[in-house]
Each structure stands twice: as structure tokens, then as C-alpha cells.
UniProtKB/TrEMBL annotation:
Lineage, broadest ranks: Eukaryota, Fungi, Fungi incertae sedis, Mucoromycota, Glomeromycotina
Gene Ontology terms describing biological process: carbohydrate metabolic process
Top-level taxon in the UniProt lineage: Eukaryota
Biased composition (Basic and acidic residues): 492-510, 521-542, 560-571
Organism: Ambispora gerdemannii
UniProt name for this protein: 12083_t:CDS:1
Pfam families: Glyco_hydro_125
């Protein structure tokens, strides 16, 4: 386990997370209150590797990144860097020190250091409200880092010489207000209200929130902010000659760059707007508890801030919150299993260096970007402290509390900006969705089975019909054949009867037909073309003896045997 003993020397850890804190005398900033808090938490943690990672990470900004402190102007100033880049980022500096504010009331030096961060943020923002990162003050004697974009970046308003980058992210201004509120809430110190830089920065921030609610066409030709950078990467510059992505007024605040400092494809970032709305309410709380004779109350700034916060909040619930059909509003997760899974993932990342990096490759945590990143380490420490306070059974060896009964979801108008999941956790939501999907698949399989069965039944039925039709056809065919046989028999019978009758009357008939066949001199000429209905005798102008006989006395259907009998009788 990695903790400090009474001589302030680290105890060697034999787990997979290396202990990386510098020796006590080499630390940039020392706080007894923070060290005591580390010891109190670490000795209760059931996971030894997680305990070492917590100590390494939460103390990192104090141990290595507080580069300069000064109070020569009558108020403290603190220059703190995020890691590799020795410049101050508004967002990152807030995240690096905000988790120390609960311990500032017991450590005056720690409180002074945090107030120094607030004051230097205000000093920078009062001059360059749209900028996100800054060089060290000239009076600090710290080296000025190289700025690769200094000659190529084109932005409006034109930045001062103190600016390292002018990438406007609305969350930077919200972070400035957030650090102020948490410091004020934990120390009850409002001395920053006497700092004219803080007053100017606060008012400029409120104005920027209002300005960035305008739509693209609404502000066209009168833009409050423009930024371009020669780059082939769309993440490094803004569209439309520096105006950014097209948007219309919705009640939300545009943020041209994301918290990653990459250009926003969609300018209305909902977490940023939620943060702004909440920090405006916190700012109102500070102003309402300040001296009634100050300028804030004269200008009725508190009422304006309240209305602005409400407008943003209502726009969030109008445009960004979608209710699930059965599970209600899903905002965040408080599932213990999911929390533990993420802690294990962070342990895998920290196993390589003892710290958390800014980013890592999703399938190989050894491939990391900026392996030492102050904001990420401080946020991890803040997360462990919050778990120790709100869900101690996750990190401490204590039993979990009984599950509370679910409470009804509040109405939209009374919603907090960030609220825990009401009816169910995110994991439960996914389990239910998976169950529903499984049921749908089962229903679909049953449906397919039914369809197949129905098709099979239809096929069998059709085959039966075909067979029945075939049998019926065969039956009809047999009946027709039988009828034909009967008809043939009847015909033969009739023919036989007719034959007998003809034999009786043979003497009465002429001998012409038989004579024609017996006499070779009598030859019947064939019919010529076009005279099918004419007699050959007529064609040659001569009378044929046959034509002088009556046609009804010639029976062409008379059988040959009957004709021979007639000839014999004549002879």
C-alpha cells in the first residue's frame, strides 16, 4: 500500500500499480490537509491498487504542476499547467484544483493557492474573454512556450500577447464561474469581489453567453467571434470563414470548440449548456449574498442572470431531453457494477505509468496520448472522493445500504439541470432493452415459424387439390372414354341395322358406282384449280352419264361388300 509514514517517506507497493509520487521535499506545493485526506481514504479502500492509483493521481497537480505563485499585486495569483504544455488552460486549471476546495477551509495556504488560480483566470479573461489558454505572466520568469500557430491563426477579437490559443469553448467561462462558486461555498471568502479583473471577467462571461445565443443569419456581418487556421483538419478551424457551423436561435449557447478544443460540428453542446445554466444560478447566489450597496444590485444583474439561466434550461428540456416510452428520462447511471467495471478499466490504464493519460487506444491501454495529464488525474481523485462520500460500499469494505423506493420523476419546470437516474439505472435500462429485444426476436421467430407452417399447409393443401384435380380429371376422362365407347357401339349397331336394310333393297339401286370401277374405259378426270364445285364433264362441254342419274340414288357410304354383292347379282 502506498501511503506516507510519519517521516514522509513512501511505503513500497507490491501491486501492479507503481507508486509514483515524488519525495516530499521535491513536491511543488505541499498541503497537510490534502495529505491527511489521502491517508484517511487510502487506509479504508479495499482495493490496494486502486488506493495507490488514487494517491498518485489526486496529488499530481499539487506535486508537479503548480509552477508559480505571487501576491505582489495585493491579491494572490497562481500559475498551474496541465502537464506537457506549460501554459494555463481555463478549463483544465479549474478541474485540477476544484476537488481541493472542501479542504481549503482547514488549510490557509491551500485556500490562497486556489484563490490565486481564480484571480489569474479573471485577469486573463478580462482581456481575452474568447481565449482558452495563456502564456505565463511576464513577471513569473517562466519560459515562454513555443506557439506554432502564432503567425497563422486569424481570429476576432484580436488576442493579446498573453494568449496561446483563442479557441472559444463556452465551458471555459462556465469553469471560471464554477471554481469561484466552490471556493466561495467552502471558504466563505468573497474577497474576489473586490478584484476588478474578476468583476470584468464575470460580466463579460454573462454577455458572451447572451451573444452566442444568436443564430448565424441573425449575427451575419456583426459576428462577436471568428476563428480560422490554415489546416487540412476540420477539427482545427471553423467553417464559413471562421463563423462556425450554421445554427439558429434556440435558447441554447453556441460553443464553437468542444471541451477537447476541437471544432464543433454541432455548436449547441448540451453538457456545456447545462453547466452554464447551473453556474449562472450559482453566480446569482454569490451576488445575492454580497454587499447590497455594490454595483451588482444597482444594475439588477442578479435578475438578468436568473432569466438567462432559465432560458437555457428550458431550451435544454425542449430540444435535448427525450423520454423513453416506458423508462422515463435517462440522465446518468448510478449502477455499482458499471462503476466497478470503469474503475477496473482505469486501473489497466494506470498500470503502465502510475497515472492516467489524456487518452488511450481503446483495445490497448499501453498506447497513450499525454501519459501525464493533470486534469484527468484530478478528476479521477474527485471521483474516488465522491464515491467515498456517496457510495462508500463501492470503494470501502462496508455493506451497501438498502435500496430506496423509486421516487416519481419531478416536473419539467422544477427539474434540476443534472439529476440522477430516477426510475432505473442505465444498466437496468440496457438489461430491459435487451430483454425486450430478446422477446422481439422470440416473437419474430414464432411468427416466422407460423408463416412457414402456414406456407407448408398451403403447399400440402395445394398438392392435395392438384391430386384431387388430377383424379377428377382422370375420372372425367374415363367417363368420356366410356361414353365414346358406348357411342361407337351404338354407331356400329346402327350401321349394322342399316346394312341389313340395304341388303334387302339392293335390286332397286343402279349399278353405276360399281360399273365405274369395273370399266377401265370410264375415267373420271380430276378437278382443276378453281373449279372445286364443277363437274369434269361440264368443264369439257360433254355430258357425263353419271350426272344423268339421280344423286339421291348414289350412296357413297355404301360398304364395298354390298357393292360386290350387287354386281354378282346382276351377273
Amino acid at each position: 500500500m502506498a501511503i506516507l509514514n510519519n517521516s514522509n517517506t513512501p511505503i513500497v507497493n507490491f501491486g501492479k500499480i507503481p507508486y509514483k509520487r515524488p519525495w516530499f521535499r521535491h513536491r511543488k506545493f505541499k498541503s497537510r490537509a490534502v495529505e491527511q485526506a489521502i491517508n484517511d481514504v487510502v487506509k479504508k479502500m479495499k482495493d490496494r491498487d486502486l488506493a495507490v492509483l488514487f494517491e498518485n493521481c489526486w496529488s499530481k497537480s499539487l506535486d508537479d504542476y503548480v509552477l508559480w505563485q505571487d501576491d505582489s499585486k495585493g491579491y494572490p495569483r497562481t500559475f498551474i499547467v496541465p502537464g506537457k504544455f506549460e501554459v494555463l488552460f481555463i478549463r483544465d486549471s479549474t478541474n485540477q484544483v476544484i476537488s481541493y476546495t472542501p479542504f481549503a477551509k482547514d488549510d490557509p495556504e491551500l485556500a490562497k493557492m486556489i484563490l490565486g488560480v481564480i484571480n489569474i483566470q479573471a485577469e486573463y479573461l478580462a482581456k481575452d474573454i474568447y481565449s482558452n489558454s495563456f502564456f505565463p505572466p511576464l513577471s513569473s520568469d517562466l519560459p515562454r512556450p513555443y506557439d506554432p500557430w502564432e503567425e497563422n491563426d486569424k481570429s476576432y477579437p484580436k488576442p493579446s500577447s498573453a494568449v496561446w490559443q483563442e479557441k472559444f469553448g463556452a465551458d471555459n467561462l462556465a469553469a471560471f464561474l464554477k471554481l469561484t462558486y466552490h471556493y466561495w461555498k467552502n471558504t466563505n471568502d468573497s474577497s474576489f469581489l473586490q478584484n476588478e479583473h474578476w468583476v470584468d471577467a464575470m460580466q463579460f462571461a454573462v454577455n458572451v453567453f447572451s451573444e452566442q445565443m444568436r443564430g448565424t443569419m441573425e449575427e451575419f456581418g456583426n459576428e462577436a467571434y471568428l476563428f480560422t487556421r490554415p489546416s487540412r483538419n476540420s477539427s482545427e478551424t471553423l467553417l464559413l470563414d471562421g463563423r462556425g457551423a450554421i445554427a439558429k436561435r434556440t435558447g441554447l449557447v453556441k460553443s464553437h470548440f468542444r471541451p477537447s478544443d476541437d471544432a464543433s460540428f454541432y455548436p449547441f453542446i448540451i453538457p456545456t449548456n447545462a453547466m452554464i445554466s447551473m453556474e449562472l444560478l450559482h453566480l446569482k447566489e454569490i451576488l445575492d449574498n454580497s454587499d447590497p450597496d455594490t454595483l451588482f444590485h444597482t444594475l439588477d444583474l442578479s435578475s438578468y442572470i436568473l432569466n438567462l439561466s432559465r432560458e437555457i434550461r428550458e431550451a435544454i428540456y425542449k430540444h435535448a431531453v427525450v423520454k423513453h416510452e416506458t423508462l422515463g428520462e435517462i440522465m446518468t447511471s448510478d449502477n455499482d457494477t458499471e462503476i466497478l467495471e470503469n474503475l477496473e478499466l482505469l486501473k489497466d490504464v494506470g498500470a503502465h505509468t502510475g497515472y492516467l493519460s489524456q487518452a488511450f487506444w481503446f483495445h490497448d491501454s499501453a498506447e497513450q496520448l499525454r501519459s501525464e495529464f493533470g486534469a484527468a488525474n484530478s478528476l479521477f481523485g474527485e471521483a474516488i472522493l465522491r464515491l467515498a462520500r456517496d457510495r462508500p460500499h463501492v470503494v470501502f469494505d462496508v455493506p451497501p445500504p438498502p435500496s430506496p423506493a423509486p421516487s416519481p420523476a419531478p416536473s419539467t419546470l422544477e427539474h434540476p439541470i443534472i439529476s440522477p437516474l430516477g426510475q432505473t439505472s442505465l444498466l437496468t435500462f440496457f438489461i430491459k432493452m435487451a430483454s425486450k429485444k430478446t422477446q422481439k426476436l422470440a416473437d419474430k421467430a414464432q411468427y416466422i415459424k407460423g408463416v412457414a407452417k402456414e406456407k407448408l399447409g398451403r403447399t400440402i393443401h395445394d398438392e392435395k387439390l392438384v391430386a384431387d384435380g388430377t383424379n377428377e380429371t382422370l375420372t372425367k376422362q374415363a367417363e368420356m372414354e366410356a361414353a365414346q365407347k358406348v357411342a361407337v357401339n351404338e354407331s356400329q349397331k346402327n350401321e349394322s341395322t342399316s346394312k341389313n336394310k340395304k341388303d334387302i333393297n339392293d335390286d332397286k339401286k343402279p349399278f353405276i358406282v360399281s360399273l365405274k370401277k369395273r370399266n377401265p374405259k370410264v375415267v373420271e378426270k380430276p378437278l382443276t384449280k378453281g373449279s372445286d364445285n364443277e363437274s369434269p364433264a361440264k368443264e369439257h362441254g360433254k355430258a357425263n352419264p353419271v350426272t344423268h342419274q339421280k344423286m339421291n340414288e348414289i350412296d357413297p357410304m355404301e360398304p364395298e361388300s354390298s357393292k360386290l354383292k350387287k354386281e354378282k347379282s346382276k351377273l
